[in-house]
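note to self: dont lose this again. the chain is below, predicted strucutre after it. 96 aa total, dont forget to put it in the shared folder this time
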Amino acid sequence: MTNLLFRLGFCLSVFGLCLYSYLDTQNQLTHLKIHLPEVEKEMKLIQEENRRLAYEIDQFENPAHLIELAHHPEYAHLKHPLIKEILTVPEAFASN
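---
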Protein backbone atom coordinates (compact mmCIF):
# COMPACT_ATOMS: atom_id res chain seq x y z
CA MET A 1 0.00 0.00 0.00
CA THR A 2 2.81 2.44 0.85
CA ASN A 3 4.57 1.48 -2.38
CA LEU A 4 1.44 2.42 -4.33
CA LEU A 5 1.12 5.75 -2.48
CA PHE A 6 4.82 6.46 -3.07
CA ARG A 7 4.44 5.78 -6.82
CA LEU A 8 1.30 7.88 -7.01
CA GLY A 9 2.96 10.74 -5.14
CA PHE A 10 6.03 10.52 -7.36
CA CYS A 11 3.91 10.54 -10.54
CA LEU A 12 1.90 13.53 -9.29
CA SER A 13 5.13 15.36 -8.39
CA VAL A 14 6.60 14.72 -11.85
CA PHE A 15 3.32 15.79 -13.47
CA GLY A 16 3.25 18.96 -11.35
CA LEU A 17 6.87 19.73 -12.28
CA CYS A 18 6.11 19.24 -15.99
CA LEU A 19 3.01 21.43 -15.71
CA TYR A 20 4.98 24.14 -13.92
CA SER A 21 7.71 24.01 -16.58
CA TYR A 22 5.11 24.25 -19.36
CA LEU A 23 3.36 27.22 -17.73
CA ASP A 24 6.68 28.98 -17.11
CA THR A 25 7.60 28.54 -20.78
CA GLN A 26 4.19 29.89 -21.84
CA ASN A 27 4.63 32.91 -19.54
CA GLN A 28 8.05 33.66 -21.03
CA LEU A 29 6.60 33.36 -24.54
CA THR A 30 3.72 35.70 -23.68
CA HIS A 31 6.16 38.19 -22.16
CA LEU A 32 8.19 38.18 -25.38
CA LYS A 33 5.05 38.59 -27.50
CA ILE A 34 4.05 41.61 -25.42
CA HIS A 35 7.43 43.32 -25.90
CA LEU A 36 7.77 42.42 -29.59
CA PRO A 37 5.92 45.53 -30.94
CA GLU A 38 8.17 47.83 -28.88
CA VAL A 39 11.29 46.13 -30.24
CA GLU A 40 9.96 46.27 -33.81
CA LYS A 41 9.21 49.99 -33.44
CA GLU A 42 12.70 50.63 -32.08
CA MET A 43 14.24 48.58 -34.89
CA LYS A 44 12.31 50.58 -37.52
CA LEU A 45 13.53 53.83 -35.99
CA ILE A 46 17.12 52.58 -36.07
CA GLN A 47 16.77 51.45 -39.69
CA GLU A 48 15.31 54.83 -40.64
CA GLU A 49 18.19 56.60 -38.88
CA ASN A 50 20.68 54.34 -40.72
CA ARG A 51 19.08 55.20 -44.07
CA ARG A 52 19.20 58.91 -43.24
CA LEU A 53 22.86 58.71 -42.23
CA ALA A 54 23.73 56.67 -45.34
CA TYR A 55 22.08 59.35 -47.49
CA GLU A 56 23.95 62.07 -45.62
CA ILE A 57 27.27 60.24 -46.14
CA ASP A 58 26.51 59.77 -49.84
CA GLN A 59 25.76 63.47 -50.18
CA PHE A 60 28.96 64.42 -48.39
CA GLU A 61 31.10 62.03 -50.47
CA ASN A 62 29.50 63.22 -53.70
CA PRO A 63 32.30 64.37 -56.06
CA ALA A 64 30.53 67.67 -56.75
CA HIS A 65 30.39 68.41 -53.02
CA LEU A 66 34.05 67.45 -52.57
CA ILE A 67 35.09 69.76 -55.41
CA GLU A 68 33.03 72.53 -53.83
CA LEU A 69 34.82 71.90 -50.51
CA ALA A 70 38.18 72.08 -52.28
CA HIS A 71 37.43 75.69 -53.23
CA HIS A 72 36.93 76.76 -49.61
CA PRO A 73 39.79 78.73 -48.03
CA GLU A 74 40.45 76.18 -45.27
CA TYR A 75 41.35 73.62 -47.94
CA ALA A 76 43.34 76.01 -50.17
CA HIS A 77 46.65 74.48 -49.07
CA LEU A 78 45.68 71.10 -50.59
CA LYS A 79 46.80 70.40 -54.14
CA HIS A 80 46.68 67.54 -56.57
CA PRO A 81 49.89 65.48 -56.53
CA LEU A 82 52.10 65.26 -59.58
CA ILE A 83 52.49 61.91 -61.31
CA LYS A 84 56.10 61.60 -60.12
CA GLU A 85 54.96 62.12 -56.49
CA ILE A 86 52.54 59.18 -56.56
CA LEU A 87 53.96 55.96 -55.16
CA THR A 88 52.39 52.69 -56.21
CA VAL A 89 52.80 49.37 -54.46
CA PRO A 90 52.59 46.20 -56.55
CA GLU A 91 49.67 44.00 -55.63
CA ALA A 92 51.93 41.12 -54.59
CA PHE A 93 53.47 43.26 -51.83
CA ALA A 94 50.17 44.79 -50.79
CA SER A 95 48.53 41.43 -50.02
CA ASN A 96 51.26 40.28 -47.60
